[in-house]
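Issue: ligand-bound run for zinc ion - logging full I/O for the record.

Environment: standard queue, default settings, no custom constraints.

Inputs:
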Amino acid sequence: MLRGACLCGGVSYTAGPPTGTAIACHCDECRRQSGHHFAAVPVSKRSLRLERQDTLRWYRASQIGKRGFCGTCGATLFWRGDEGAHVHLLMGALKAPTGLRLGAHVWVREKGDYYDIGADLPTYREGEEC
Ligand SMILES: [Zn+2]
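Outputs:
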């Protein structure tokens, strides 16, 4: 079971277990929203239990999904596709120990030009399954 919360505590949740690989997503959308790249892990939509959601806001960033964030402190929290059974949790909001490790870099063709990606993990030019 994973537990997460935003910086101000207006949003908190439990979810899990993970249903797939934890990924670093370097797409343009993720970078603009987060200020760098996403680190996110998928869980089933049905497993997500919002304990507090007073300040939770959803932004429709694309035709295929919405991005959940805290309207007070600005924490990036969720990516939820309209289709599919999964929601991605932003791993910076998870309470330790998570027991998780990043498994892949995705959308590296849109990564920023100000950093390099090491050879430690598999890389995908576009999305893997996310
Ligand atoms: Zn907050």
